[in-house]
Design brief:
Layout (H helix, E strand, L loop, with lengths): L3 H12 L3 H8 L2 H22 L4 H19 L2 H14 L2 H11 L2 H43 L24
Helix pairs in contact: 2-5, 2-6, 3-4, 3-7
Length: 171
Amino acid sequence: LALLPTLTAQDKEAEEPNAAQRLLEVMKFETSGVDAALASFEPVLDQFRAQGLPEEAVTEIETAARGYFTKVMTDEELRADVAKLYGELFNEDELEELLAFYQTPVGQKALFEMPKVLGEAMKLGQKHAEKYAPDFQREIQEIVGKHQPGAGEEDAPGEDAPEDAPENPEK
């Protein structure tokens, strides 16, 4: 009987969400996560449209994606893992400050608008990245070529030159 109050206190403690779990609740973790995932998936849908896929098919893909993202975001293990991550990255006072912010009108607006901002920012980033992609691709090809077996041997002096060829024809 002496253990009952202790067990009851432990059970009560286990039922009360910690600051990280409360934060996920205030942030509307599941719905905002689905919205963010759909916003980041929009460029994929745009690619399907650009390839000439009928809008009806794109809508079906979007519906399937929503179902998929909903399954992922409502997974209790994911929620527990994300709460744990917040607990590792932020101390209790910081979590309480985040909670306080996200409970304000501006905090709620930020939560509502952030998926749109991130989705649009990704589109803008992709658009601007295209300007630099050819140079980056060439740079990658040069790096890979430099490190592949046999690459650059023709540039190495004397390695592939015939043995009876003069070392320096200008002399």
